[in-house]
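Input chain follows. Return structure tokens only.
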Amino acid sequence: MQLMESETLELKKSTSELKAGIVSLTAMLNKHQRGELWFGIKNDGTAVGQNISEASLREVSRTIGDHIEPKIYPSVEKVTMDGKPCIRVQVEGKETPYYAYGRAYSRVGDEDRQLSARELENFILEKNRDRLRWDTEICPQATPDDISSAKLKRFLKSCGLKYDTVQNALTKLNLIKKHKLLNAAVLCFAKKPEKYFPNAKLRCATFGTADTTVTLDMKDMTGDIFTLIEKAEEYILEHINIGMRVEGLLRVDVPEIDREAFREAIINAFCHRDYREYDSVNIAVFKDRLEIRNPGLLYGGLTISDIREKMVSMRRNELLAELFQRRHLIEKWGRGIKLILAKEPATEFEEVGSMIFVARFRRQGLQKGVTGNTDVTSEEGSGKSSGKSSGKTKNQLLVYLSERPGMTIPELAETLEITTRGVEKQIARLRREGRLRRVGPAKGGHWEVIE
């Protein structure tokens, strides 16, 4: 029989390579919870043998025990291979991660690779994920009196389940442990979740430029997680362009960013965020893009390329995900990223620093063949709207003129991405309403915003 190195088998020519052999044992333990190490066999499988005594067997066993943590108890024995005396070491252990000389390794093929700090962190989180899940932890101060029966009734009705009492409903949904409410119960169904979780909130802002220098609107919202999802969607629809197209005899609203795509990103943000972090889910509407940000990097060692190309997912909050699935907000197979990219192929995903995950959608403006509603009307071929806005464009115009009173009509048109004719109409309306006046001549004068 000729041995070959693999993810669970390492060959060493002699015990002079014992230190490297110990590294291989920890790598195999961390990958497969078992491993086998031979001395007296070259890495091509050729048995060369070596001198072996009882003392040398004990020394191998002692050295392995001294330099692997947590402690393991190897099986060390003398075995004859092709007539040559060899040493076989076998180990098993489930107390991962194991460390050799203070460092952790993992087996990749027949090689040992040291784990990076992030890989080690994910390794530990994965091992303890059931014990560390925020959504399944008990909220010690909360009681059933904090739960809204109306919210529970609506949820159960949407799931096709019957309601009798708060206690029974929460029990059916696995939201009670040791007669105490779980964090997920409070986040989803409490009258005021923010009473216990100040980070159970949504922060929204709209900016007039491609950065945060000009703020047009800012709102902080609280409530249960399902309410916040709806509020996030409503806010985005209020602050991006909405056009219309005709389908048969009906007019259909057409947002400049696909509604299903950004709604899926909102749901993902609330479902998969790290609730141990104090920050909130943030919606940022810029002049050129929409960003949906949530605290918590990708879970379980996933990378951006994994979620884009392999379409795989790992759930940080398994219980919350189950509730979302019951409500038909997510699918069991986690196809949310696929849906987003199918609707908006240019969507970008980014991990920022050590805490923030961002889904970024480019604002396209109104497309050819889509006409504007009463808020924004598209001029075919111009790529700009005429500015027929009941409030949004006028407010933006006032913000810019309050900061730069000397802006010209062409400059305003370029900044607001509407036509010069649209700017003139908005200025005329604002002057009629007494909210704007011209000081000085057309050339050399400036605008004055009247509070």
